[in-house]
Design goal:
Helix content is 45%, strand content 10%. It is mostly helical and 272 residues long. It has 3 domains: 8-65; 79-202, no CATH class; 216-271, no CATH class. Helix 5 packs antiparallel against helix 7.
């Protein structure tokens, strides 16, 4: 027997069959009461009950294939949801997680887990040496690359060149939970629905907590002639915006690593 599809016709059939089952159940109850009142009709009622049971089983089977909600039924596996579940199983945002998820990821053959495992390699806080070894083996199995467990930068650079490999749908929130474990304020940068114009997989924690290195914020400026402390070979970062020009000496930037300033009427951030 062909299954009832999930389209409008299939949904209508499923709904009509559901109504039929309810009606048949009420009829069955009435028939049972009738049988109790009139013993001579018991054999007919038994046949009717068997027929009703068969129809109910048929309706249930059809209804299982026609899902009016449009969502996968509980018995159907959604690969994207499966990848989310395994990812959160590896790290749930609170504890060390279940390292057994690594083996399941490797066996799945799903490249969706590659960004997750690369992130895991860079998070020794939630892993151990044995788990890192397993993660490296899983990465090599899924990717076909031969980078070592310590070649995290090579893994990231390789992933950046793979446009077709995308993480699970809840990866942004999961990665934010990793950062939140380092410092609560870091989790504010990555969360589900955060607007991003770059791949979140390539965002890397620099090893310092938020505001751990104070930025150079709206610094005072002097003319080039007055900057007699600079040597001819000193490096500077030149910035030009809307016809206005400014140089930020490396020796000034070095202890701050970032400058937040306004130039040409535009606020901007300079980092290197």
């Amino acid at each position: 027997m062909g299954g009832v599809g999930g389209g409008p016709l299939g949904q209508k059939v499923a709904l009509d069959l559901s109504k039929l089952v309810c009606h048949l159940r009420r009829t069955s109850i009435s028939a049972a009461r009738l049988a109790m009142g009139k013993p001579r009709t018991a054999s007919r009622i038994a046949s009717l009950t068997a027929l009703l049971a068969a129809l109910a089983m048929l309706a249930t089977a059809c209804n299982g294939q026609a899902n009016p909600s449009g969502r996968p039924s509980s018995g159907a596996a959604d690969p994207r949801q499966d990848s989310n579940r395994l990812m959160w199983r590896l790290y749930d945002g609170f504890g060390a997680g279940d390292h057994g998820a690594i083996g399941a990821m490797a066996l799945s053959g799903d490249k969706t887990y590659i960004p997750v495992l690369i992130e895991y390699l860079f998070s020794p806080r939630i892993s151990n040496s044995m788990a890192l070894t397993e993660a490296g083996e899983a990465l090599r199995q899924l990717s076909g690359q031969r980078f070592g467990n310590d070649d995290w930068q090579k893994w990231v650079e390789w992933l950046g060149s793979q446009e077709t490999i995308r993480p699970p749908t809840q990866f942004v929130g999961w990665k934010g939970s990793l950062l939140r474990g380092i410092h609560p304020s870091l989790g504010n940068f990555l969360y589900e629905g955060v607007p991003a114009r770059i791949r979140v997989e390539e965002i890397v924690w620099g090893g310092v907590v938020k505001d751990g290195i104070p930025d150079l914020r709206n610094p005072p400026h002097i003319s080039g002639r007055a900057a007699d402390y600079l040597q001819p070979a000193d490096r500077v970062f030149g910035v030009s915006i809307n016809g206005e020009h400014r140089a930020y000496p490396l020796r000034i930037m070095n202890p701050h690593e970032m400058a937040n300033d306004v130039l040409g009427g535009e606020p901007f951030a300079l980092a290197y």
